């Protein structure tokens, strides 16, 4: 045909090369597959239908047969077993066989029949002389299998009947009225009689019950009966349910018992001990559990469990009563009794510590009225990463919290530590260099338990007993010393179930040793520490410093952990267990090493460089200065957590670089917004207070220019280029911190601290303290050293630290001696008639103040004297100056951030404020001096000048420095850092007589000395001394 013009008639061609037959074949195969699947599904449906019908018919037939058997039973024995005699319970009778065949717990009639059968069983057993003869007949051994089967079925039927009808009879389930003839009592009595341990079938019966998960049945029965429990009238009485539990738990598969060990999920521990306050319901059961070795057996089963405890515990009763917390509370109460018994097994303490550690780890933080939570246990900073990748853990019931916190009391901890570390073999092992597995296991168990306890419970309840009433510090130190000596930390990692084997072995011992030893040092006095060398010798402390700084360097620089903040979600702690322990060690080891550095500053027993890490070199310091401002870097973490690892001079460089960065940031603003003030020299404090107090924080960080007005009301000569301001800072600090002004007092060492009675002198005393904080902050901000010797305990307040007993000698040595006398008093302190009251004496006015609420009625006795000493020291060192210190700190922090001075201890902070007072390094100044106006290094006038200055007294040297720089103290790191460098310029032109009669002058803003070319040393010395002692302000210029 010819083309018609219609494109729709074109022949379709498959460009893939497949024909239509091939496409039809594929479709046919798919259709056949679908039909095959459909036929298979139909066959499965038919097969399932057959099975269902078969099962239904079988059940129908069984139900019918049981109905027939029931009717036959009623005909033979009566519906209420009224035609039953003792022969009916024998092996040849069909009575029990028929009853067990048709009995159904859902049938009310069957329940009544079972109760009456058990009533008859109890009565006939009593009359015939025992259950064995009644049920086993005269030839029990020949029919043992049949008898055992009937007995175990009957016992299980009795317990199951109680369980099925628990809601109907819930007020009778835990009844202690044993003589009652109620249905529940009859069934429980029968079950208890059938599993009497004296009977030959006892183990077989209990084994069968355990296979039927009888503890789950007991749990549900007890929880139901607990709702109607009335504690009144139960003291000293044992319920039938408790009796039954006692009979069952005794079968542990040990000794003569052949009962198998069942899965932990269905065990007594998981099912019964996770019931809230189970020992309050069953006190006799608790006694049996502890006294017969059952506690040790069930604890060992839990300790060897490979599954997480949350997976083996039943569903929680409620949100406030999670199973793991209930289990922990009950275990603590039971183990507390076991630990108090003589010869408590070492293995029990090990297993308990390991089990309790894992349970405590899941626990939310315990809250008390005093602490309000775990705030004081917090170990992370505000800027740390928050781990929150686990569901929130809701708080526990107050009663459950109270049970747990009351159980872990000082006595409990004392007994646990004594059992773990008190065995004679362990003490013998500790004297050897080689560490035994037993000793390592004890240390690992104790440290794991205490580490988690520190995280969960308030520290003040447990630290004192660990520090003063146990040998924990000495045992741990002996262990750590030998591990360090032999480099054998892996022995602990190998036996610790808490941390993986590849974790650092020293983590857990340090996590416990550091806070306990630190707490001990709070009450140790100077004589004990330095002279008696208690609790550790000074040689041991030097070794401890080495261990601490090496381990800190390891986890902060070589193997750093990511910065984290572990919130109250304890599941996250478990997930990040190693990281949490490592981070805790960073904090507690840093705190302890800082405290040891404080002791070293009081009286040196180690060279200051001993605290520096060996790995700190020039490369590290340069990197630290570059990266210290960058958070989440290793250098930042070291300077924040353990700054003492870095030499003091390096930290000062970093501090000045931080200040320079802040000044540069505010530089453009200060060019256009400078503050200028006129200050009367004879009213310097009042004028400065009224004018500087009005400045905003930004203006305080900017440039401040001062014009002095002399006593005649005339402005002094000179333009403030910085030198007059430095002079102003020296003068105002000298005036403000003068004791005669009444804001500060002196210690016996002439060190300053806030006057507790300042409010009686100045109405605006707190505003003055705020102002003085600003003044000190401004001096440090501008790098001006001021001669203010502060007391160490007051400098602690600038770091927001707490002061303790060992800080008291600098304030009140007499009170300190009295407190130490009380601490060492061997008699009865009650005879001294001391109470928790302290008397304040300010300006002749004596007032009494209670140290604790109701303190005037609480006598100081031997048991609470340590607390009394702490409270007295706290009152004098912290409470009395709290208001003044907080206002001073508030003003200080307007210019100096807390992070900047956290790098320094109190001794170093005093150096930052005042510099060193030991000497004046003339050679250092000479090597960092410029010359102008014709002078040079070898000029004869210059040689005379340096010789004269070197022979000046230290006082005149400082006066000279103030004359030329405006400040009597040189730069902290040396005159190399004086800005600008000191310069000597020739003054007076030619050496005429008029020129030689001129006095030397200075330009303090440029650190410039204008020195005429005197011809003799005597003339130069005379003119210099006159100029520096004239105190003529800037009129000499």
From TrEMBL:
The keyword Transferase applies. Keywords: Transferase, Ubl conjugation pathway. Residues 8-23 have a biased composition (Basic and acidic residues). One of its GO terms (molecular function) is ubiquitin protein ligase activity. Its EC number is 2.3.2.26. GO terms for biological process: protein polyubiquitination; ubiquitin-dependent protein catabolic process. It is an enzyme of class 2 (transferase). Belongs to the UPL family. PANTHER family: E3 UBIQUITIN-PROTEIN LIGASE UPL6, UBIQUITIN-PROTEIN LIGASE E3C. This is HECT-type E3 ubiquitin transferase. It comes from Helianthus annuus (Common sunflower). The lineage of its organism: Eukaryota, Viridiplantae, Streptophyta, Embryophyta, Tracheophyta.
């Amino acid at each position: 045909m010819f083309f018609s013009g219609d494109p729709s008639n074109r022949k379709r061609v498959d460009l893939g090369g497949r024909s239509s037959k091939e496409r039809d074949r594929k479709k046919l195969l798919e259709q056949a597959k679908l039909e095959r699947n459909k036929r298979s599904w139909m066959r499965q449906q038919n097969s399932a239908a057959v099975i269902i019908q078969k099962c239904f018919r079988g059940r129908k037939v069984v139900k019918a047969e049981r109905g027939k058997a029931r009717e036959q039973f009623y005909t033979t024995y009566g519906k209420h077993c009224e035609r039953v005699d003792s022969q009916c319970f024998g092996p040849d009778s069909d009575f029990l066989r028929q009853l067990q065949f048709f009995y159904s717990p859902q049938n009310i009639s069957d329940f009544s029949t079972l109760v009456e059968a058990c009533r008859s069983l109890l009565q006939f057993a009593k009359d015939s002389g025992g259950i064995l003869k009644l049920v086993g007949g005269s030839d029990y051994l020949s029919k043992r299998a049949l008898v055992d089967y009937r007995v175990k079925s009957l016992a299980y039927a009795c317990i199951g009947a109680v369980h099925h009808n628990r809601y109907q009879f819930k007020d009778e389930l835990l009844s202690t009225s044993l003589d009652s003839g109620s249905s529940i009592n009859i069934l429980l009595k029968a079950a208890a009689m059938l599993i009497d341990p004296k009977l030959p079938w006892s183990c077989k019966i209990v084994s069968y019950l355990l296979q039927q998960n009888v503890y789950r049945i007991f749990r549900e029965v007890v929880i139901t009966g607990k709702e109607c429990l009335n504690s009144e009238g139960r003291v000293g009485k044992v319920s039938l349910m408790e009796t039954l539990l006692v009979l069952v738990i005794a079968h542990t598969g040990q000794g003569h018992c052949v009962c198998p060990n069942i899965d932990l999920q269905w065990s007594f521990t998981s099912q019964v001990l996770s019931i809230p306050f189970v020992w309050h319901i069953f006190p006799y059961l608790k006694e049996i559990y502890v006294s017969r070795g059952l506690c040790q057996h069930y604890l060992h089963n839990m300790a060897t469990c490979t599954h997480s405890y949350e997976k083996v515990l039943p569903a929680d009763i409620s949100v406030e009563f999670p199973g793991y917390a209930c289990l922990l509370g009950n275990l603590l109460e039971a183990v507390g009794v076991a630990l108090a018994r003589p010869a408590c097994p070492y293995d029990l303490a090990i297993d308990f510590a390991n089990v309790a550690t894992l349970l405590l780890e899941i626990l939310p933080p315990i809250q008390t009225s005093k602490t309000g939570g775990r705030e004081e246990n917090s170990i992370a900073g505000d800027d740390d990463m928050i781990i929150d990748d686990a569901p929130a853990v809701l708080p526990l019931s107050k009663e459950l919290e109270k049970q747990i916190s009351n159980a872990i009391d000082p006595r409990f901890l004392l007994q646990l530590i004594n059992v773990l570390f008190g065995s004679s073999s362990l003490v013998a092992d500790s004297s050897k260099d080689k560490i035994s597995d037993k000793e390592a296991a004890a240390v690992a168990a104790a440290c794991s338990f205490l580490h988690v306890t520190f995280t969960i419970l308030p520290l003040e309840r447990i630290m004192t007993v660990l520090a003063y009433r146990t040998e924990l510090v000495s045992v741990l130190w002996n262990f750590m010393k030998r591990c360090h000596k032999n480099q054998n930390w892996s022995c602990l990692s190998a036996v610790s179930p808490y941390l993986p084997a590849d974790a650092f072995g020293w983590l857990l011992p340090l996590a416990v040793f550091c806070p306990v030893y630190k707490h001990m040092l709070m009450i140790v006095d100077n004589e004990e520490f330095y002279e008696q060398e208690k609790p550790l010798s000074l040689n041991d402390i030097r070794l401890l410093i080495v261990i601490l700084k090496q381990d800190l360097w390891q986890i902060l620089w070589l193997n750093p952990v990511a910065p984290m903040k572990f919130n109250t979600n304890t599941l996250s702690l478990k997930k990040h267990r190693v990281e949490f322990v490592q981070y805790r060690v960073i904090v507690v080891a840093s705190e302890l090493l800082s405290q040891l550095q404080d002791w070293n500053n009081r009286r040196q027993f180690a060279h200051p460089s001993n605290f520096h890490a060996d790995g700190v070199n020039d490369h590290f310091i340069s990197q630290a200065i570059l990266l210290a401002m960058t958070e989440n870097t290793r250098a930042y973490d070291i300077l924040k957590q353990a700054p003492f690892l870095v030499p003091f001079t390096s930290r000062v460089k970093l501090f000045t670089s931080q200040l320079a960065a802040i000044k540069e940031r505010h530089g453009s603003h200060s060019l256009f917004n400078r503050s200028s003030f006129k200050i009367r020299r004879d009213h310097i404090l009042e004028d400065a207070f009224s004018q500087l107090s009005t400045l905003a924080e930004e203006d305080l960080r900017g440039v401040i220019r001062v014009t002095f007005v002399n006593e005649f009301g005339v402005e002094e000569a000179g333009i403030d280029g910085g030198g007059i301001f430095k002079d102003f800072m020296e003068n105002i600090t000298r005036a403000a911190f003068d004791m005669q002004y009444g804001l500060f007092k002196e210690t016996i060492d002439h060190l300053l601290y806030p006057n507790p009675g300042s409010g009686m002198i100045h109405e605006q005393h707190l505003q003055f303290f705020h102002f003085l904080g600003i003044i000190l902050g401004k001096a440090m901000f501008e790098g001006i050293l001021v001669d203010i010797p502060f007391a160490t305990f007051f400098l602690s307040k600038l770091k927001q630290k707490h002061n303790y007993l060992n800080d008291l000698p600098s304030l009140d040595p007499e009170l300190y001696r009295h407190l130490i006398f009380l601490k060492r008093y061997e008699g009865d302190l009650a005879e001294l008639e001391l109470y928790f009251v302290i008397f304040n004496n300010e300006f002749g006015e004596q007032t009494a103040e209670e140290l604790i609420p109701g303190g005037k009625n609480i006598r100081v006795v031997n048991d609470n004297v340590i607390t009394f000493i702490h409270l007295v020291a706290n009152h004098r060192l912290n409470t009395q100056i709290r208001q003044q210190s907080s206002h001073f700190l508030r003003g200080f922090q307007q210019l100096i951030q807390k992070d900047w001075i956290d790098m320094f201890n109190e001794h170093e902070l005093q150096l930052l404020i005042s510099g060193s007072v030991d000497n004046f390094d003339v050679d250092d100044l000479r090597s960092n001096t410029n010359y102008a106006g014709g002078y040079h290094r070898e000029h004869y006038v210059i040689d005379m000048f340096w010789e004269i200055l070197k022979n000046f007294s230290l006082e005149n040297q400082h006066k000279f420095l103030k004359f030329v720089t405006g400040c009597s103290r040189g730069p902290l790191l040396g005159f190399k850092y004086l800005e600008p460098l000191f310069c000597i310029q020739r003054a007076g032109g030619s050496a005429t007589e008029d020129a030689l009669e001129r006095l030397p002058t200075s330009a303090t803003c440029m650190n410039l000395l204008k020195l005429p070319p005197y011809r003799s040393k005597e003339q130069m010395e005379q003119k210099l001394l006159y100029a520096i002692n004239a105190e003529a302000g800037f009129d000499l210029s």
